[in-house]
Design brief:
This is Fimbrial protein. The protein has strands spanning 15-16, 34-39, 49-51, 57-63, 66-67, 74-76, 84-90, 106-111. The chain has 112 residues and is mainly beta. The chain has one domain (5-22, 32-92). Strand 4 (57-63) and strand 5 (66-67) form a beta hairpin.
């Protein structure tokens, strides 16, 4: 999908992040609490965004429309997991130019 550099504002170009949580019913106990955490290389200008391979450009993850801070566990109900969306963000002083970019993160589910 094309991203217009001048229109990156932390809202435009938002995309759903598809994921599923599958629990083995023979192992899962409904009394257990589940949490979702994401990790990656955090940008210096947004604690809910990871760096891309383009300096000054990041990808913010949002859960149910709110920033999802890196490394912060979010309690979830696996039967109704939160909607996750990724949106490009940029540093205030970023001078971006046309080109491709990529970013990598890990989404982890824990239970206790």
């Amino acid at each position: 999908r094309n991203v217009i550099i001048d229109n990156i504002n932390g809202d435009n170009f938002r995309q759903d992040v598809p994921y599923t949580i599958t629990c083995d019913p023979d192992v899962r106990d409904d009394a257990w609490e589940m949490s979702l955490t994401w990790t990656g290389s955090q940008t210096p200008y947004d604690d809910s965004a990871i760096e891309t391979d383009v300096s000054g450009l990041g990808i913010e993850l949002q859960q149910n429309g709110q920033p999802f801070k890196l490394g912060t566990p979010l309690k979830i109900d696996p039967s109704t997991p939160p909607t996750l969306q990724a949106v490009p963000v940029k540093a205030n002083d970023a001078a971006l130019s046309d080109g491709t970019f990529s970013a990598y993160a890990t989404l982890q589910v824990d239970y206790q």
